Amino acid sequence: MPPRERMDAYADLIVRVGANVQEGQDVVVMGWIDHAPLMRPVVDAAYRAGARYVEMSYRDDYGRRSLAEHGAEDVLSWTPPHSLLRLQDWADRRVAYVQTLGDADPSLMAGIDPARVGKAEPYEATKLLRRLSNEAHWSRTIVACATEGWARQVYGEPDIERLWDEIFAAVRLDEPDPIAAWQEHIATLKGRAGALNDRRFDAIHFHGGGTDLTVGLLRTSRWIAATDFTHWGLEHCANMPTEEVFTTPDRRRTEGVVRATRPFNWYGYTVGGLEVEFREGRAVRVDADDGGGFIRSQMDADEGGAFLGEVALVDESTRIPDRIFYNGLFDENVACHVAYGNAYTAAAEGAEGLSPDELREQGVNVSATHVDFMIGGPEVDVDGVTTDGERVPVMRQNRWVLD
Amino acid sequence: MPPRERMDAYADLIVRVGANVQEGQDVVVMGWIDHAPLMRPVVDAAYRAGARYVEMSYRDDYGRRSLAEHGAEDVLSWTPPHSLLRLQDWADRRVAYVQTLGDADPSLMAGIDPARVGKAEPYEATKLLRRLSNEAHWSRTIVACATEGWARQVYGEPDIERLWDEIFAAVRLDEPDPIAAWQEHIATLKGRAGALNDRRFDAIHFHGGGTDLTVGLLRTSRWIAATDFTHWGLEHCANMPTEEVFTTPDRRRTEGVVRATRPFNWYGYTVGGLEVEFREGRAVRVDADDGGGFIRSQMDADEGGAFLGEVALVDESTRIPDRIFYNGLFDENVACHVAYGNAYTAAAEGAEGLSPDELREQGVNVSATHVDFMIGGPEVDVDGVTTDGERVPVMRQNRWVLD
Fold it and tell me: Which end of chain A is more exposed for a tag (fewer CB within 10 A), N or C?
């Protein structure tokens, strides 16, 4: 376990930059029972930052495992009534909501029917949590917590110290003043988003290393980076680390061939050597050395599965080491990526609140899936394409060049 | 950690004898995050017993520590609204409620102002929990879970295996059929309570080894043992282990001198060589080799502090080793004991629902404190005294003899 001073510094960063806890604000710190070594310092840090009352909320997926194993079919997705009341209470009190992420036991669900595991989730609570988060009822941040189980998954051995070191480096705790380093980092990412929004590119073109892909954008596409705002205007940083600038593309206008620049893992499926060809938005050919069948079955699962829902730019300044981390906070932020499946309505002006049919009509993709894969690297250059067809360099040799 | 089969056997006992989980009943398993090794098997055991839905609820007193250290005075005893809604939801659903007990870190509150620690508790939630428990809205059992911190407190070293062995022996898991052994044990204790209730003794007399104490009983005193019933009639065993038969005495009629037969610990205060003299119910003299000042200050704290609120009989068949366990489940159940301070209204017929003044008027003690100390042993005999003054042997040489 890292010394208490480093955990305290991490906790301060989470509270001050991530959730941006305000004087007098209530705070919820939620995580797995294995995350106590981080959650406890976060509680203290929240009080130091002026929190009024801090609540700890512990999860243990063993309950979900046992439910999936033993529960009746009609109980699997049941929600205890008080779970909904708790979420509403948090929203009413405009809490700061810190969630720690880090799989405690990747083999927990071994031997349990995956279909039942998938259903063993309190449906109404998940739906309400998503709605309240989308409506920005709290300042929320999701941060990583090392566990032995997660370290074993990443390194093949339970080297939790190494994982802590990589987490701390990824969130800039190795800087002399991490909070100032984050303010600078956020300004850099917002500067990139601003430059892209100023240009109002019609498309993004990735080319090199076997990739020649044009991702058409919407006239309403809005590039987003680093921070969000609650409905009452409190800025917060929803993910730490965060390295990307991303937007919602026009689902109908992806053209060409793209090669994944590294293997990736999705809930236990490893995909390597992926190449996808798009025509008029749709993936028409999927080849892979490993896992191609998995990708094709996901893309076929619903109407929007074979269309892009996200395009994101990450350059070589990323703090994420080039390795599979089996963790969304890390694996996305290592390089430029696209995702097939559902789009973020927040990244398309005027899209929030529209029906699925209205979204598709406007070119915003809708799907039950959303899978990112990395397409960036030194061999892949990135251009912005204007409505006049002019090509403006955005990234060269994996470095950001757009002013 | 004990092998999974022993934990499963313990979990089955907790679920089937303790909470008496019924087919289709919802279950709550609550404990400290350090109790996962017991709580998880209890979840599985509950489903095996026919539970519909099992919820895990984890506590971490670190939150309380941090609140006591940093929180504003007027926030210390604040209750988040959803906490009350959760308790009411559990009552509405008539859950079985398993609580695991076992201090994870006895030094957790070191360095924090004890007065602030005392206040750092959600007052409205504690009050509602007590009311719903008293009104028997759930089948509830409190059971022990070994932790390294607790083992260190008991043995001076973190010998958690030894503590598990002693817990398992105390709850009769060393019997060939623990559930049958419990049914027999419960029948024995209820037999004792029945014999005492049949006699309607006017007083209990402890004599020998320097003790000569008469504890006057009420005409409404009711001896209770082993099990309780929910308001809809489900029998359950609220404490495991349980070895005592107890009742509420007449606060006005304790007379004589009593010697504690072993040292005891109360929230960090160790009391040794205690001798107390009572006249007309009140403790008029308190001597002790250690801790006398603590006892006197507690007795002086309010009007009922110096009067008895409980008398309990435990004989040599107890499964609890003769040692300070720093845990209420164990320390009470080692020998006959009395408690100064608040009385159990359930053990005095017609007392439930009365006001404090009405209770005192009837001879039922009322106080903010309730401290047990052990007065039984081989040198102390116990008689029941009838209204005619006849003395009937109840215990001889620490063995139960009343038919």
Answer: C
